[in-house]
Write the C-alpha cells for this entry.
Amino acid sequence: MTHELVREILRGADVLIFAYFVALNSSYLVLIAMAGLEFGRHLRRAPFAGADDMFRSPLTLPVSVIVPAYNEGPGIVAAVTAMTALRYPRYEVVVVDDGSSDETFALLRAEFDLVEVPRVVPGEVPYHSEVLSVHVARAHPETLTVVRKTNGGKADALNVGINLARHPLICMVDADSVLDPDALLSVAKPFGDDPLRVAACGGVVRIANGCKVIGGRVVDVRMPRQWLLRIQVVEYLRAFLMGRTGWSRLGGLVVISGAFGLFRRDLVVEIGGMATDTIGEDAELVVRLHHHLRRRRQDYRVIFVAEPVSWSEAPSSLAVLGRQRRRWHRGIAEILRKHRGMIGNPRYGRIGLLALPYYVVFELLAPFIELAALVLLPLGLWAGAVDVGFMWRFVLVAYGYGLLVSLVSLFIEEVSFHRYPRWSDLLRGVVAAILENFGYRQILAVWQVRGALGALHGRRAEWGTMHREGFDTVRESAEPVGVGVDP
Amino acid sequence: MLGLFTVVLEILAVVVAATVAAIVVVRVSRRRRQRRRAELAAGPRRALLAFAADNGEHGAQELVAIPEDAWRAAEPGALALLGKLRGEAHLALVSVFLQRGTARTALRDLRSRGRVRRARAAQVLGDLELRQAVPELCRLLTDRHDEVRVVAVRALGRIGDPAAAWRIIASLDRADPVPSLLATHTLVQLGAEAEVTLSAALDHPQARVRAVCLDALGLLGATGSVRRIARVLREDSYLDVRVAAATNLGKLGTRTALEPLTLALHPARPAALRAAAARALGELGAPGAVPVLVELLDDGAFQVAHEAAHALRRLGRPGEQALVAAVEAERGGAHARPSSSASHAQEALALSRVGAERGERVGAGA
C-alpha cells in the first residue's frame, strides 16, 4: 500500500515537473516572439530614427560614463582610450579605482597625464570608503576624471562615481567592456525621444571571447574556440538579448546589466544610489527604481535597446563560471527577498504582478526543479512509477523543447542582427544549442542552487580571483569584474 | 500518455528541423539579396560619386536615366550623400531626386495609411529640404503616432522655414508632445527669423512651451529678447522655466542680464535656480558679479557653492583673485579641515591652473 502511494507520488511529481518544463520553455518562447517583433519594429524604423541628428544636436543630453575598476591593469588603458573615443556629442568618463593593488592607477596616470585636483565630493548618495584623490587628464580635464579610493566594492565605487558625475545621465560600464562606437548614442536615444518618461535604458551585452578586438573596438565577430564559451554565446542570445528585449516590450524589464546601462542621475540620487548590501546591485537598482516610481504613481519607462552593444568577456573555465553563476543566482535570491513586498502586489503593476512572480517561478526556482527532475525521474523508474519508455520520451520532450527555444533565438538573431557572418560559426551555434543540454544545464543548476542557498543562509558572498588578459588580443579566459545578477 | 508523448516528440523533431532549415534559408536568401543589391547599386554609386566630385555640374541626366530597380538599390546611399553635400552640388542632387519623382512619391506617401511609410516619406522630404512640403509636414505634426510627429519635426528643421515655428510650438501643447529637446533644436534650425515668434511664445500658458522657447532663444543668440527673458526669470511661476531663463540669460551674455541674475541669487530662491543663476553669471563674464558669487561660496547647498566657485573661475583674473582670497582667508584660521568655501575655491583654482597650462601648451605648440 505504502509502496503504491510512493509510486503515485513519484508519478505525480514527474508529471508536474514535466508541466513545469513545458511552461518554462513556453514562457521563453513568448519572450523571444516579443523580442522578434521588437527587432522588426526597430529595424524598420532605423532609416528615420535620427541617430545622426542626435549626434549633431547641441541639446543632446550629456552623459557621465562611470567605470569602476579593481585590478584592471592589463586592459584599463585600452578600455579608457576606447571609452573616450565613443561617438557622442558630450560626455565625460569617470574611472573609479576601487583600491586596486596592481598598477591600474599608475598606468592611467602615465597614459593620460593625470593631474590631481582637490575636487569636493558631494555626498548625494552614500559611500563608505575614503576618497583618496581625484585626478583629471591634463589635456582634457572636462572629459576624463580618475578617482582613487580605498577598496569598498563595486557598488561603493559606483556611488562615488555617481557623486562626481556632472551630467544628467549616468552610464555604468564595466572596465572590461568593449563598447560599439555608437553604443552610447543608442542607449541615450530613448531619453531624447521620450525625456519625460524614460528613467533607465539597458544595452545588450554580448560575449567578446573569440572576437578580434583592436584598439578597444570589436572589429571581427567570431564564435569562441571553446565549447563552454560557445554554449554561453547561445545562452546570452536567448536569455539576455531576446529575454530582456521581450520583457522590455512587455513593460516588465527588471534587470539592466551592470556592464552597460544608462540611468537618469536625478532618479538614482533620489533612491540613494547603488545598494551595497546585495551582490546583484545592478538589478537591485532597477527593481528599486520601479518600486520608487510606482509608489509615486509616476508615468515612466525602463527599456532595453538591442543594438549596438557592449562586449564582455565570459568565463572560460568551469571554476570561474561556477563562481559567476552562484553569484548571479544569489543576487536574484537577495533581490527577491529584499523586495518581496512587491511580488504579487497590484500596486506595482506589471512588475509586481508579472515580472517578479516570473522571476520567482521561472528563474529562482528553475534550478531546484531541474535538479529535482534529475533525482525524481530515476527514482520513479527504480520504484516502478514510470517505465523506461516514459522516461526517455519525457527527457527528449523536455530538453527538445529547450533546444527549440535556443534555435528560435538563433533564427531571430539571423533574421535581425546576424552578427556572426561565418557559416562555421552558425553551425557551431546550432551544435552549442544541442550540447547545452548535455551536462551544462545540469551543472549550472547545481551552482545556481548553491547560490540561492547561500543567500538564504546569509553566507558571505564570494568574488574569487580575477584574471585579465587585456584588449587588443583574442581574449579567452577571464571573469567579468564585479558583475551583478546578470552580465 | 505514451502515445501523446510520441506525437509531441515527432512534432518537436519536425519543428526543430524546420527551424534549422529556416536559419539556413534566411542566411542564403539574405546574402543573395545583398549581392544582387550590391550589383545593382554599383553603377549608380559610381555615377553619384563622379557627380559629387564634379560639384554637380555634369552627370545629372545620367543619374535621372538610371533604371528604377538600380536607383532603388542606390537610393539610401544617394540620400546619405545628400546630407554631406553643400551649395551647388547639393541643389543639383536635389534636382536629380525631383526629376526622378522622389519628392512626388514622398508627398503622396505622407497620406499613406502605414505610419512607417509616412515617417519615411517625411524623412525623405526633410533630406531634400523641400520647402513646398512644409504645409504637409506641418499637418503631420498632429499625426496620431508620435514617431511620425517626431520625424516631421526633424524634417521641418532641416527645411528651415520659419513659417513652421508656430506649428512646432503648438505641437508642444498637447498631452503627448514632441520631445522638448528635438523641438528646441528644430526651432533653432529655423534661424533668427523665428525670434519674434519665439519671443511672443514666452507668454504661452504651457510651461513646457515657454521652456523650449527660452532654450531656442538662448541658442539663437537672440539678444533682442533679453528683457522678456529677464521678466520670465522674475515672474514665471514654474521653477523649471525660471531655471531655463537664468541659463539662457547667461548664454546671451549681455550686461542687462546682470541685475536679474543677481536678484535670482537671493537666499529665499530655490537652490536649483540659484545654482543656475550662479553658473549664468560665470558665463556672462561680468566682473561686477564677483562679490555676490564670493558670498555664495559658503552656501549650504552644495550645487550653489560649486557653481559659484566655477563661475568665479570662468570670470578670469578678478574671479581667480577672489578664489585665492577665499583660500588664503582659511589659512589664517584654525580649522582642522578646510571650510566649504575654501574647498570649492581650491577645486576651481586647480581646474583653472590645468586650463591655463593647457592653454600655454597649445600656445607654445602653435
Notes: Chain B touches chain A through 50 residues (CB under 8 Å). Chain B has a mean pLDDT of 90. Residues 2-53 of chain B form the longest helix (52 residues).
